[in-house]
Fold this sequence. Notes:
Layout: E1 34-39, E2 42-49, E3 52-55, H1 56-61, H2 70-73, H3 79-82, H4 86-101, H5 106-109, E4 113-115, E5 120-122, E6 130-133, H6 137-147, E7 163-165, E8 171-173, E9 178-179, E10 182-185, E11 194-197, E12 201-202, E13 205-211, E14 230-237, E15 240-241, H7 242-248, E16 262-264, E17 269-270, E18 278-279, H8 298-303, E19 305-306, E20 308-315, H9 317-321, E21 327-333, H10 341-348, E22 360-362, H11 377-380, E23 388-389, E24 395-396, E25 404-411, E26 419-420, E27 424-429
Parallel strand pairs: 6-22, 8-16, 9-27
Antiparallel strand pairs: 1-2, 1-5, 2-3, 3-4, 6-7, 10-11, 12-15, 13-14, 13-22, 14-16, 14-17, 18-19, 20-21, 20-25, 23-24, 25-26, 25-27
The chain binds calcium ion (CA).
Amino acid sequence: xxxxxxxxxxxxxxxxxxxxxxxxxxxxxxxxxxxxxxxxxxxxxxxxxxxxxxxxxxxxxxxxxxxxxxxxxxxxxxxxxxxxxxxxxxxxxxxxxxxxxxxxxxxxxxxxxxxxxxxxxxxxxxxxxxxxxxxxxxxxxxxxxxxxxxxxxxxxxxxxxxxxxxxxxxxxxxxxxxxxxxxxxxxxxxxxxxxxxxxxxxxxxxxxxxxxxxxxxxxxxxxxxxxxxxxxxxxxxxxxxxxxxxxxxxxxxxxxxxxxxxxxxxxxxxxxxxxxxxxxxxxxxxxxxxxxxxxxxxxxxxxxxxxxxxxxxxxxxxxxxxxxxxxxxxxxxxxxxxxxxxxxxxxxxxxxxxxxxxxxxxxxxxxxxxxxxxxxxxxxxxxxxxxxxxxxxxxxxxxxxxxxxxxxxxxxxxxxxxxxxxxxxxxxxxxxxxx
Length: 435
Ligand code: CA
């Protein structure tokens, strides 16, 4: 069944008897994202519906869920559930949609609903590995231009989905504060580096891609089946210390500038939920090379991109003290990616590298071609040279202690109910004392 197949769970007139779901900006009944919530100190798999969470372990115990999904629904992470075959995941989604829409199920299901505010949301999967790509072509151009004005893109960019291995142990869900990192940095006119708190702390607006089922070592994933390995998506903020990055990145790429903390939205919006929001991959500019055969697939080109509007908002400590709402820094579509998510999965496994359930792939910063859609401060302030002004009059080149950064994402398509990704925000804490 094609991965863009729309069914009764996407019907725009479908409503839930959970009243807060109807008209909810993120979690209407058409979404049904999975997460892991700590309830009374116990981790449980849940489904977000309006401002409530449905406890799947409780539903499984009560005999409400399809038999083949019951053991996985009682786990404390989503690795097994999202590793189930696509057909089983569809059956579960269809059943959840029925349970939460048909009022006849309300008496037996209601006992398993909890207010979302009561539970602590955790990371949804045990993340074995995290890889960050660089497929936002406007970001690559903007950043490349700061270093190489005449030649912003390196020659490999239009052939290879560029990526690097990040660090899984420092990924955190929304709400966990980010401690400003210390590290080596060298001013352009200095003769030697110093070790100090980063002065150029930045965010990066990205999508996170969750791997549901992996591949065996030595057995690549064909581009035509790459979608089967993608369980779903989150928002991802790849916090970046630009001063550390500039000094350390050559010749082996990002290291301590990026591995101190990564924030994700903890609800996984499934590939099935996103079926109505599949769109064609934007055509490559005239003169660009076609993808090599192992990255070329007609269906991927016709349905492989996603119609998602992304936004970044900031609030400073003073803005919050003055009761001001968060200030929008940028917004733009997620389709500004040179490679599709299926292409990055196929490329990742193309050398036989084994992906595993729970692996997380970042797309790389997604920027629009114009300034109102730039996905990092490095781009918005032109490398810290043109500060932005907040509603309080405060200036920002990079993030200050107390700043809170929030990413938002909404999938939308004509004739369908938009669905969102939920919260992806964190506040900056001051650097630790240098030992
Ligand atoms: Ca990144």
